[in-house]
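Regression test case RT-17, inverse folding.

Input:
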């Protein structure tokens, strides 16, 4: 296939890798090389990826074909998107969270369809999740609270004191479980009552994902910094917990400089993003089958599991292309 470079890789312990990677570089429009970095969000029921160029210009791309379409600017770089109808192909409108506020967008035209909302939300929020048909949850990356926000007009309903969650999923009894491994806690939230009803201790960690009935997360040691209320997590293991009981199910050594668990590929293997690499772990032996080493630090990574594909963004200062990494 033209433009594809195939590379045989070695795993971290120097043995022959069982995974063969194909890597394709795709160009992005020229833009500013300053900004905070943009998230990549998958449009529901598609292989389309939505993001922003440095400076906040929306675009969608098809990593498997290279098609790209650009639109309007947001108020800063994209942080997250909640689609109005995330369960069907009719997800044509959405709430978009950017560096400097929250706004409505049209997914088809890539235009902003409402004013930028900042009152009560502020700047530099990092994550957004759908909690119900009427409520969004918005939080900073490592903050100590989460905002409950109306999906009707973006107004703030309530601020809850809790570790800002990296992962949120619904429990069978109407509650939501909010994982904040950075703060070593999972909080059970009653959205209707607008209050936290239980808190569960966790190991320190980062980068959790929900994989079936398990939460897979990087766990390690907390490393304090000279700054108050700020610390780093040095992952040593990747651990699976039962999503309901929080009982550890299995544990394996984490790849060096791991950042987040991206998910499971089509064969059930665990895919992990590190500072400058993508690693694939065997789901039975729990050993690294192969590692793709990127040409620079990763500016972001998004797994498309059914195609054994990771879309890799470069850091902001190299934001003229992205890479499509595939394996068998």
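Golden output:
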């Amino acid at each position: 296939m033209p433009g594809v470079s195939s590379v045989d890789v070695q795993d971290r312990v120097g043995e022959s890798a069982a995974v063969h990677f194909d890597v394709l570089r795709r160009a992005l429009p020229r833009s500013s090389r300053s900004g905070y970095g943009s998230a990549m969000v998958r449009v529901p029921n598609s292989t389309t990826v939505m993001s922003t160029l440095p400076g906040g210009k929306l675009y969608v791309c098809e990593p498997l074909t290279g098609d790209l379409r650009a639109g309007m600017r947001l108020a800063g770089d994209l942080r997250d998107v909640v689609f109005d109808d995330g369960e069907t192909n009719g997800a044509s409108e959405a709430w978009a969270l950017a560096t400097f506020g929250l706004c409505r967008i049209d997914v088809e035209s890539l235009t902003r369809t409402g004013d930028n909302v900042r009152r009560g939300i502020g700047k530099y929020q990092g994550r957004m999740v759908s909690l119900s048909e009427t409520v969004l949850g918005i939080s900073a990356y490592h903050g100590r609270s989460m905002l409950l926000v109306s999906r009707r007009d973006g107004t703030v309903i309530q601020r809850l004191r809790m570790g800002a969650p990296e992962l949120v999923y619904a429990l069978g009894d109407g509650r939501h479980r909010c994982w904040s491994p950075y703060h070593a806690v999972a909080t059970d939230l009653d959205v209707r009552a607008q209050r936290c009803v239980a808190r569960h201790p966790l190991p320190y960690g980062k980068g959790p994902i929900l994989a079936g009935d398990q939460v897979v997360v990087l766990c390690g040691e907390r490393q304090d910094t000279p700054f108050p209320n700020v610390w780093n997590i040095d992952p040593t293991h990747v651990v699976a917990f039962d999503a309901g009981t929080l009982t550890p199910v299995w544990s394996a050594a984490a790849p060096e400089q791991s950042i987040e668990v991206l998910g499971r590929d089509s064969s059930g293997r665990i895919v992990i993003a590190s500072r400058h690499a993508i690693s694939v772990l065997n789901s039975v032996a729990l050993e690294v089958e192969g590692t793709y080493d990127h040409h620079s630090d990763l500016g972001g990574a998004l797994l498309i599991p059914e195609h054994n594909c990771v879309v890799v963004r470069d850091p902001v200062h190299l934001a003229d292309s992205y890479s499509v990494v595939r394996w068998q």
